[in-house]
Amino acid sequence: xxxxxxxxxxxxxxxxxxxxxxxxxxxxxxxxxxxxxxxxxxxxxxxxxxxxxxxxxxxxxxxxxxxxxxxxxxxxxxxxxxxxxxxxxxxxxxxxxxxxxxxxxxxxxxxxxxx
Length: 115
Prior knowledge:
With 115 residues, the protein is an all-beta fold. It has strands at residues 2-7, 10-13, 18-26, 31-39, 46-51, 57-59, 67-72, 77-82, 91-99, 102-105, 109-114.
């Protein structure tokens, strides 16, 4: 089993920044893709960004140019730097990692952006 612990969420004004972190622990052999999804009230969970072991990144169009995903393989941690935040970025943000093609989800961290 892989356990994920997220941190860094909170309340911020529009235009502000937050940095999310997600650390993996437990039975870890070879973590592959790491990433972040989010779910706003009344909406489906959506992809925010992913990063492969080799560092290839993928972003949702809505966050391109504002969010940056990175990872520290030695620390088994993935980060999401969020700049120029907008009220529509308000959501619960979930960390996801895959190991042997199996996805593991974090419990989520709330990000609220006030206008």
